[in-house]
Write a structure and sequence with these properties.
The protein starts with a strand and ends in a 15-residue tail after the last helix. About 30% of the residues lie in helices and about 25% in strands. The longest helix is centred in the last third of the chain and has 14 residues. It contains three helices and seven strands. The protein has one domain: D-amino Acid Aminotransferase, subunit A, domain 2 (D-amino Acid Aminotransferase, Chain A, domain 2, Alpha-Beta Barrel). The radius of gyration is 15 Å and the shape is globular. Helix 1 links the parallel strand 2 and strand 3. By secondary structure, it is an alpha+beta fold.
């Protein structure tokens, strides 16, 4: 299972946990924390497909990506609703690749783990 994040007008928006239809998970929580650390405004709120389509038509919908345990950060190149398609150029993504890189940099020790997420496993 994967959670989705939308970058609309420079803000990262992800559905809230309130309705119980979104997976509450470590990767989602970690992504939200790191995105905020990276200077992004992150909103956890419900949004409709109509809001998403309208933002795309206005040129405000910049990217969409999934976050989850198996894939960590997964790029999405196309969303469709009814007869309307929204295409995203993966070469122009900024937020998702930066998040993926930052998570990986923490994992391999290239940057400090200031949230104490890493645990040393005894050998």
């Amino acid at each position: 299972m994967m959670n989705v994040m939308f970058v609309i007008d420079g803000k990262v928006i992800t559905p809230s946990l309130e309705r119980g239809t979104v997976l509450k998970g470590v990767t989602r929580d970690s992504a939200i924390v790191l995105l905020r650390d990276m200077g992004y405004v992150v909103e956890e709120r419900n949004l409709s497909i109509d809001e998403i389509v309208e933002a795309h038509k206005k040129g405000l919908f910049q990217e969409v990506f999934g976050v989850g345990t198996a894939a960590v950060v997964s790029y999405i190149c196309k969303l469709s609703y009814k007869d309307y398609s929204m295409d995203f150029d993966l070469d122009k993504l900024k937020v998702a690749p930066a998040l993926k890189q930052h998570l990986n940099d923490i994992r391999v020790g290239n940057v400090p783990d200031k949230h104490n997420w890493l645990m040393k496993v005894p050998s």
